[in-house]
Amino acid sequence: MLIVFLGAPGAGKGTQAKTLATKKNLMHLATGDLLRAEVTAASELGLTAKAFMDRGDLVPDDVMIGMIQARLLSTGSGGVLLDGFPRTIRQAKALDQALTTTGMEIHRSIYFEVSEEELVRRLAGRSTCPNCQRAYHDSFNPPQRLDICDDCDEKLIRREDDRPEAVRNRLKVYETQTIPVLDHYRHAGKLVEVDGEQSINAVQSDLTNAVE
Ligand SMILES: [Zn+2]
Question: For a 10 Å CB count at each end of the chain, is N or C smaller?
Answer without folding.
Answer: C
